[in-house]
Amino acid sequence: QVQLVESGGGLVQAGGSLRLSCSASALTFSAYTMGWFRQAPGKERSFVAAISGSEILTSYGDSVKGRFTISRDNTKNTVYLQMNSLQPEDTAVYYCAAAIRLSRTRDQYDYWGQGTQVTVSS
Description:
By secondary structure, this protein is mostly beta strands.
């Protein structure tokens, strides 16, 4: 049974940084695109970033481009999201997800983690 487990969330002041991790099990990790999405209260889950299995291709949501960096370590079955210059509007539950191909679309992702809360105070 595929499991994705996020960690690294927490409370940070505006301008600060956090690094999220997502560890995968029971998954041929390097064959999957890994993505990060986020959902703020009262809003739909939205795309943050994705990275192809080969690590060659990445994609970012417009609101995080230049501030967030997605990376992965296929030897550890782990994907990361380095978040810099955090702002209160980045406050959300962050989810990692796995898809067969690189996509910014939520319904293209087959497996999801439970999420980790990120709160940015002003």
